[in-house]
Design goal:
With 122 residues, the protein is α+β, with helices and mostly antiparallel strands. The protein has a domain of 67 residues: Uncharacterised protein PF10387, DUF2442 (NE0471 N-terminal domain-like), CATH 3.30.2020.40. It is built from three helices and eight strands. Strand 7 and strand 8 form a beta hairpin. The longest helix is centred in the middle third of the chain and has 6 residues. The N and C termini lie far apart (94 Å).
């Protein structure tokens, strides 16, 4: 006859990479889920991902910068958080080239206006 033993799943620490969220439990187990399971952490910067705190005596983790909570039970049960409709992903970085709305000019990556070649008189 076998006896089922209830094991409490409490998190000791977490590691977040671009690919995974990994929870190290106090009993030595390690749970790892794909980053895509948390759209908020997927959109977060590395510094936002690194700013976490244990909640509920280690039953979960909270990321205050992105208002994300993940529980050990949620990771064990395989419950991903899907992005709600209408919520877009991460914005493009501020230094990404964006064309100027002005006709005949564009902004260079340095922010200076540059005249288009075909607009020059010959």
């Amino acid at each position: 006859m076998s006896t089922a033993v209830s094991v409490e799943s409490r998190i000791a620490r977490v590691e977040v990479t671009d690919e995974t969220i990994t929870a190290h439990l106090v009993d030595g187990r390690v749970i790892s889920v794909p980053m895509a399971w948390s759209w908020r952490l997927s959109d977060a910067t590395p510094s936002q991902r690194a700013n976490w705190e244990l909640i509920g005596d280690g039953h979960g983790v909270h990321w205050p910068d992105v208002d994300e909570d993940i529980s050990a039970e949620g990771m064990l049960s395989g419950t991903p958080a899907h992005r709600p409709k209408g919520v877009l992903g991460r914005k493009a970085p501020a230094n990404t080239y964006q064309p100027s709305p002005r006709q005949g000019h564009r902004s260079s990556p340095s922010g200076r206006r540059v005249k288009k070649l075909h607009d020059r008189k010959r």
